[in-house]
Structure formats: C-alpha cells, structure tokens
Write a structure and sequence with these properties.
Elements (H helix, E strand, L loop, with lengths): L1 H11 L5 H10 L5 H14 L7 H5 L1 H5 L3 H14 L7 H5 L12 H14 L8 H9 L4 H14 L6 H11 L4 H14 L6 H4 L1
Helix pairs in contact: 2-3, 3-6, 6-8, 8-10, 9-10, 10-12, 11-12
Length: 200
Amino acid sequence: ASIKFYLDFLVKNNHSDLAILKQTKDKFESRNSVHHSGLSFANAFMSAGTTSDDFLRQNLDWLRRASNWSKFSATAGFGVIHKGQLDQGRALLDPYLPKTGVTGSSYSEGGALFALGLIHTNHGSGVLEYLSNTLANTSSDVVQHGACLGLGVAGMASASQELYNELKQILFSDSAVAGKAASIAIGLFMLGTGNKQVIH
C-alpha cells in the first residue's frame, strides 16, 4: 500500500529542527497550558509522519507538566508523529491506553485513543473494534471524546451503520464533551455519502 511508501519517504527525509522547539520551550513558562499545547502541536506538525518523537522523549519532565486538555493534546500528538505505523501503533501507545483495573489520567487515555485513530487514519480496520469496545466500556466523557475522535479518523468514509448507531447514542447523551466528538466522528464516518437520514 502507498502508506508504507509515504512513511519511508517521511522517515528518510525528516529535516525537523528540534533546536527551534527546545529554544521555544525554554522561553515560556511550562505550566502555562496555552504555551504547552502550542508547543505540543508545533512538535506534532513538524514531525508528522516521520516517527521522530525525540523531542518528547528528551523532555519527559516537561511533558509530565501538562494537565487536562493540554495532556490530551500532547498524547494525541504521538498519533500525528507516528501516522502510518500501522504495525506498531498499539505498542507505541500502550503506556497511555486505558487498562482494565488501572486508574490513569483520563486525558492521557483519551488522547492516546485519538492518537491510535490518527496513526490508522483511513486504514482503521485493525483498531475500530478496539476503539468501539473502549467507547462502550467507559463512563469518562474525556475517554469517550478520544475514542470517538479515534473512531472518526480511523473509520473515515467507511459509512458503517453499526458504528454510526454507537456514535449517535453518545451524541444524544448528556455529555457535551463526548457529544461534540461523536458529531465530528459521524461526519467523518459518513464522509461523501450524502446520507439523508444522517443529515436529518
């Protein structure tokens, strides 16, 4: 598949300048969530598809200072960086993904689910069931938010009626956080179908 060629090309032709990120990080107060999120996004976009997460690995202490949605974004950034690594996506994100009987940060878990979807963008057959099961088995609206977004990007244009029905249940729940992500995911799922029932 062409996704492997894109991945090989981006890995071999990565010219991201990590010094820019380091200097930017050193200039700003790391506890400011806007600056933290902005730098997380910059790193993700600079390294998109290159599999180079060196900046994050070299700055784990800085990364740990993220809180709430900043933590969600930083974790989701792994998915942008590792986009296309279909064989290793779950293993890369395993430390952050939700685990039965283990209480972790819902923001990290939600971000990791979104990241998993981003890694498998439009090639999600291997992760849709996992994301769907996670969505069904959590009551955290932040984890639901991440699972919905992950489903949306992984299942883009798949028009799966079964998953649409699952997302519709989340959309009609009382959670604005999860409902927003479910509506975005429905749009991504039904991309290009012009399905009148869904539009109604």
